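Good morning,

Attaching, inline, the backbone tokens for the sequence recovery test we're adding to the shared suite. The designed sequence is right after.
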């Protein structure tokens, strides 16, 4: 079964998560520098059949787009051009960074590693993807 990959976009880094073979469980994949993402995804699509990229949609509390939305839309155009046969979906990512920080704390990761942005980005992508999967049937 083709997999689904979530991307937690940032200007410096992109957190990635991928589904299991049945598209039931999301797992953190990696955190990649934004300027290296297209080659990384090209390698990934050689290893796995990818049906959908899910990109976080940061929305503020009043439902207005976040400041980074313009950059995300530019990135989506680049992504679509590089992977025209892969669907691109958006998913509300409000509070995923907060949830990621709480997850890191509750998992027992030492305080020195809790502020590691690479871990936070990957966990945020995992949360986005798992939420997306849970809401697919709704």
């Amino acid at each position: 079964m083709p997999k689904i990959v979530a991307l937690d976009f940032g200007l410096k880094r992109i957190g990635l998560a991928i589904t299991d073979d049945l598209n039931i469980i999301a797992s953190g994949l990696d955190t990649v520098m934004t300027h290296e993402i297209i080659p990384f995804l090209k390698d990934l699509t050689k290893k796995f059949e990818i049906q959908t990229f899910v990109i976080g949609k940061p929305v503020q509390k009043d439902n207005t787009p976040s400041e980074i939305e313009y950059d995300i839309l530019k990135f989506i155009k680049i992504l679509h051009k590089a992977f025209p046969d892969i669907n691109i979906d958006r998913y509300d990512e409000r509070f995923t960074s907060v949830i990621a920080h709480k997850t890191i704390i509750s998992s027992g990761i030492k305080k020195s590693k809790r502020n590691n942005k690479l871990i936070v980005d990957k966990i945020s992508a995992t949360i986005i993807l798992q939420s997306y999967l849970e809401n697919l049937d709704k």
